[in-house]
Each structure stands twice: as C-alpha cells, then as structure tokens.
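Interim report to the steering committee. The following record documents the input for FLZ-type domain-containing protein (100 residues).
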Amino acid sequence: MRPSASHYAGGEYNQPHFLDSCTLCQKHLSPNSDIYMYRGNAPFCSQECRQEQIEMDEAKEKRWKISSSKRSSSVRQSKDSTTEESDTNKAVRTGTVAVA
C-alpha cells in the first residue's frame, strides 16, 4: 500500500521533500524563493502564513492551559470538600485529662 502523498519516480515511491510545499496553504515552494521556517522543520511560503500558524499554535496552547487548570482546580476542590466532610464526621473529645 503506498502513501497518498508520495511521488512515483523510476519504479519506486518516494516521499516528497519536506521543503516542497507550505505547511499552512500547501503552496509549492520553489528552490529560488524565500522559505520561512517555524519550530525547526515547518516551512512556510510567506511571513503571513508563518504568523498565522504561530497564532493558531498559541491559541491552542492557551486553550490547553485553561482546560488543564480547570481540571486541576476541580480536582483540588473535590479533595478539599472530601477533607471537610471527613473532618466533620470525626468524633473529638474536649475537656481536661488528668494523669496520675
């Protein structure tokens, strides 16, 4: 079974080079044009495409941080309420104890 993004050349299937097209808009990148890189190996055809990807990644990270902080906050609240319930169920004696 061959990959969908492969090229057939000389009797074998070859994966395209990662600098062949823009990561965002899939526009072909010519060898004589500027290539804008992001996060090591993501090529872009323009600064605009690169900036759009950066903004999408930042928004995704922000949503992830918000959702993970909500989850950890709800876990903390659950533990706090459990602790409060267990504290109220404990019998505590008050008074003076004399030891002879």
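Residues 1-6 have pLDDT under 50 and may be disordered. The committee is asked to note this result when reviewing the revised timeline.
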